[in-house]
Amino acid sequence: MLRLGCLLIVLSFALAACGGGDEQDAGDPVANVPSENGIREAVKAASTPDAAAFPSAEGRTLDDIRGEVESGPDLAMASSVFITPGENRMAFGMIGQDGLPVYGPTAVYVAPDPGSPAEGPFMAPADVLLTQPRYRSKQAATTDDPFVAVYAADVRFENEGPYSVLAVTKRSDGGLVGATAEITVSSKEASPVPAVGDKAPKVQTDTLESVGGDEALLDTREPPSDMHANFADVVGKKPVALLFATPQLCQTLVCGPVADIALQMQAKYGDRMTFIHQEVYVDNDVQKGVREPLKQFNLPSEPWLFVVDADGKITARLEGSIGVAAFEDAVKTAL
Amino acid sequence: MRRALAAALVLALLVPGAAEAHGLVQRQQLPIPQWLFAWAAAAVLVISFFALAVLWPQPRLERDAWRERWRVPGWLGVLTGAIGILLLVVTILAGYLGSGTALDNWAPTFLLITFWVGMVFASILFGDVYRAFSPFRALGALLPQLNRPYPERLGRWPAVAGLFVFTWVELVSGWGEDPALLVTAALGYTLLTLAAQVWFGVETWTRRGEAFAVYFDLFARMSVFEVRDGRLGTRRALGGLPRLDDAPGTVLFVCVMIGTVTFDGLSQGSLWRDFAADVVDSLESVGVGALTASRIASTLGLLLGVALVAGFYRLGIEGARSVGGGLSQHKLESGFVHSLVPIAAVYVAAHYLTFLIFEGQALIYLSSDPFGQGWDLFGTVNSGIDYGVFPQEHTWYVQVALVVIGHVAALILAHDRALTLYGDTRLAVRSQYWMLGVMVGFTSLALWLLAQSGS
Hints:
Chain A is built from nine helices and 14 strands. Chain A is α+β, with helices and mostly antiparallel strands. In chain B, α4 runs antiparallel to α5 (106-126) and α5 (106-126) packs parallel to α11. Helix content of chain B is 68%, strand content 3%.
């Protein structure tokens, strides 16, 4: 009787295994944010900002708008390359005077200088940086970094040259706080980094073979992932998500978790897209400079994500801090 | 010859210093340098040795002190066997049906962490747990058994081959990154084992040829629990080891146990990585692919690890022989091999403890969806690895403590056996100077290997 019961258990596993097969739902990324101190609620509110909550830029300068909000936090830009024409993902964090991130509905305004007419508000929803727990590397799981989300706005710039940026966040008490930063916008032609619509350079990314079997050189993530196919072998045959990042040498939540997000996305889209993680520094030594694939992509910073469709054309390009939602949206552009 | 052996012994005693030169990396949080730990560990062994010489004049562990405590109901064996079969089936199906990513698949985690490492701890603590849960024994009981005579000269040699191949699969092949390939190997081993059981009988093959059964049985001999004829009893800790029979291949089996872990530790350090890179470059220059060259280098490293341990043990035996007593090399080699089992145990425990504690947690979420079908059978699919469950700053202390305890246990076993073999306390103690050298060497090697992971 007992043997029969055990047999039935085995069979039920086997039968259940034959069914199903739906995509694993990553769920709401906000659910991955710790609930302590109301952070999850703040991030949830920050992930769906409403334009009506922010001052209109109609006929006003950046200084005018800045005058309507309290100062206090600092604006930390998490992306550095901006081009015109076209839409730019402007990633940033708002950091309070206590050094902790400020989360709330947020928007940005831009102008060539503070006294010029402003454009905006561009909504900047918070994008969660934390993956589902099972996909977190040791680096991400043990960091004390308090940043759990990054703001990102899609912004278009009319002209090249310097721009002033004003980010405004609505606090839980309804008050608005703002902070400014300066950026430089280049022409699309002047930016050497391959852009959306370009053919992706057919670079040879590192594999276990190319590093002589030394896994420590291949991946600084702990534990190492299996996302190490040769880009040149798969590009043009299948959609590819190519991530340039170094989890160990950039341990903050700004760039460390990007490889984790890639791993989570691979679990969901891996049957339709090849996910490749390329380490940044030669022999993982910052002093030795960046590896060849990064040189061929002319990358001035890291991390970068390039999503390439089955024809080898870049369909999405993300720089700097990348959240789960932005990563997934980018992946979908090539499917 | 004696001079050479003496020189080698002196060298072994100096290993803590040599190890430092080879890269014992001081961890910043340690209050004293790591090389001092190595010397302290060696000092503990030396003190233990002289304490044994004075306070342990009669053999104590050779006498069988098993006492029955509980009659094991027959249904329990059926249940554990069925669980073993279920786990084997789930693992093989998971390898084929689950995620192609090793980190996201039940099979590699279960086979290489829970089973391979976890079962060692379970065996030491609770006795021969594997025997109870072995799917091969449970399946074998359902199949006919021809019970053909097992060639005695084969001894444990099939288990030696099986253990070496498994460690090659784990540490060299890269199959662990490919769940389907890994479970294909497991399936192959299952079929081979079932066929051998049909031919030689389940019990004979379990005792001699089934690599995992032999492996975990050796560790289980350290436990205070032992089941005999359906009765659970208790005995002294380590009490099962003196009863180990001297079947051919046993010495090499134990050397493979220690040598493969030695290579795993060595391969994580810069010393091996630099050497392997040179080997790969050389082989590439003659047209061998880099990955193949890397695997050739690692296979050689694995063999080197086993050879190093075997050579070291042989050195101790030759030394013991040189003190007189008229004992043959075979008698001494098989007589003292059981004393190496605690060393094998602490090599595994110290090297893989955090691996089991941290990466082993993956089984909690993988068990809810072993086939990657989007299930949440136990409500744990959204859990992760909690690196706070074990204070990592204490890891080194725990590792050192384990290494020292294991080597003191080995000294005790060797001393106890020497008293029986030589029948003369003075001669027995003199023979153990050499075993002391071996133990200090193994201790230093263990600490150096643990330090390698940080270099």
